[in-house]
């Protein structure tokens, strides 16, 4: 299974001023597989150390954290003779021993010749006093579930992946129906590697009940993580994590997808749930898209911290917990209408983030008009409209183009590409590569 993030890691390996790398991402997104495969391809040896339930490593990192002391112990633990330049050191599940994360600072300052990757999430690190993130001493990357192009490659459809990657509009038009069929499969399966692998190996005799069972199992593992730090977490946090998570499908089913605390529980307020939301975002289980008060460059300066949308980390998991039958998605465009655009926006959000974009959205104060997403591109702001199905009416998009003097806009739907004045119509599956 090929991952596009491999290119990022390859570039990191060859940097002259290389720092230790922290690879974040949701559980089950494929971090461990990726770093092990990276080690196989680009290093002579890989010293892999899991910090999960590892008392020896907990004791090791409670003492002196100089590389001179740590490297021999890591060699012994991994069974690999660690040599700078030829060995990749992998500290997996680093959040389980937060002082191991702090130790990366000393590798950066005192032993930069060692190639070190730490994988994990932010969950739990804030609960351990006396530990700190080594700001400025590490390079950080976030791995998402497989994007649609990676799904196509896993399916053996490299040619279709190239069509999407290269934004070949003629080929998109010719092969549109075929790519859309693959997109429907992706909306059912999602991008969790274990689920994709099971689907690919079983196709065409796919047992979609088994696919859903795998997705449900992943969700239950997430819920188990919620309660893992219950003893050291603020009182009631585990309950709030579950409440926020459970509310997201119904939040996305609304016409206006702004997150509403009152939909979690009657009378719910921001201060009740802001910590739970931040934890879910930090662990990449939830994707947060902030509102901007005006869609102007730079977007960050116009962010409205009081309003945002939340999406799940994976469209397949959204389908599973929403209890939508695969046949509903695979049969025509029914899913887009039935879910009121929730699946289309969920997919779009995932693809934008996986492509390295930082999406925002804009909505008028009186909620009379909205732009689904706005992104920065070459020093300007570009509006992106996501349409559910084949209806391309977009009054808000055209009104905002005039109001904010946008010179170009993109509208994504289930239709083939075409140009409509300053609005470029593209298929939904092209949102991760539209700028090309």
Automatic annotation (TrEMBL):
Domain AAA stretches: 18-152
InterPro entries per UniProt: AAA_14, DUF4143, P-loop_NTPase
Boundaries of every DUF4143 domain copy: 234-389
Pfam families named among the record's database cross-references: AAA_14, DUF4143
SUPFAM superfamilies: P-loop containing nucleoside triphosphate hydrolases (SSF52540)
Gene Ontology molecular function, alphabetical: ATP binding
Keywords: ATP-binding, Nucleotide-binding
Protein name (database record): ATP-binding protein
Species this chain originates from: Gordonibacter massiliensis (ex Traore et al. 2017)
Upper lineage: Bacteria, Bacillati, Actinomycetota, Coriobacteriia, Eggerthellales
């Amino acid at each position: 299974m090929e991952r596009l993030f491999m290119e990022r890691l390859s570039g990191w390996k060859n940097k002259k001023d290389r720092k230790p790398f922290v690879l974040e991402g949701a559980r089950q997104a494929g971090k461990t597989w990726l770093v092990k495969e990276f080690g196989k391809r680009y290093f002579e040896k890989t010293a892999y150390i899991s910090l999960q339930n590892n008392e020896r490593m907990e004791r090791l990192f409670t003492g002196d954290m100089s590389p001179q002391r740590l490297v021999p112990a890591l060699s012994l633990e991994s069974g690999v003779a660690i040599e700078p330049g030829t060995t990749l050191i992998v500290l997996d599940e680093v959040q389980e021993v937060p002082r191991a994360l702090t130790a990366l600072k000393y590798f950066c300052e005192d032993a930069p010749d060692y190639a070190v990757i730490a994988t994990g999430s932010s969950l739990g690190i804030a609960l351990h006093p006396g530990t700190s993130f080594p700001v400025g001493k590490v390079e950080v990357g976030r791995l998402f579930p497989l994007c649609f192009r990676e799904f196509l490659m896993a399916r053996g459809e490299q040619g279709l992946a190239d069509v999407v990657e290269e934004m070949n509009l003629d080929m998109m038009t010719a092969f549109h129906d075929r790519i859309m069929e693959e997109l429907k499969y992706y909306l059912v399966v999602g991008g969790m590697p274990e689920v994709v692998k099971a689907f690919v190996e079983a196709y065409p005799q796919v047992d979609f009940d088994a696919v859903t069972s795998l997705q449900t199992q992943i969700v239950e593992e997430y819920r188990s993580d919620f309660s893992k730090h219950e003893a050291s977490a603020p009182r009631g946090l585990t309950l709030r994590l579950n409440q926020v998570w459970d509310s997201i499908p119904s939040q996305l089913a609304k016409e206006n997808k702004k997150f509403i605390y009152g939909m979690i529980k009657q009378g719910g307020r921001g201060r009740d749930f802001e910590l739970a939301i931040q934890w879910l975002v930090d662990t990449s289980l939830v994707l947060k898209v902030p509102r901007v008060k005006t869609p102007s460059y730079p977007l960050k300066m116009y962010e409205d911290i009081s309003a945002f949308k939340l999406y799940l980390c994976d469209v397949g998991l959204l389908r599973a917990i929403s209890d939508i039958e695969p046949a509903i998605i695979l049969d025509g465009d029914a899913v887009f209408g039935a879910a009121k655009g929730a699946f289309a926006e969920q997919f779009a959000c995932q693809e934008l983030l996986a492509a390295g974009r930082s999406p925002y959205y804009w909505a008028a104060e009186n909620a009379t008009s909205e732009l689904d997403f706005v992104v920065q591109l070459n020093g300007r702001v570009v509006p992106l409209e996501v349409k559910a199905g084949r209806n391309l009416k977009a009054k808000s998009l055209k009104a905002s183009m005039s109001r904010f003097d946008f010179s170009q806009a993109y509208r994504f739907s289930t239709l083939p590409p075409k140009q409509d004045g300053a609005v470029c119509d593209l298929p939904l599956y092209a949102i991760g590569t539209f700028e090309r």
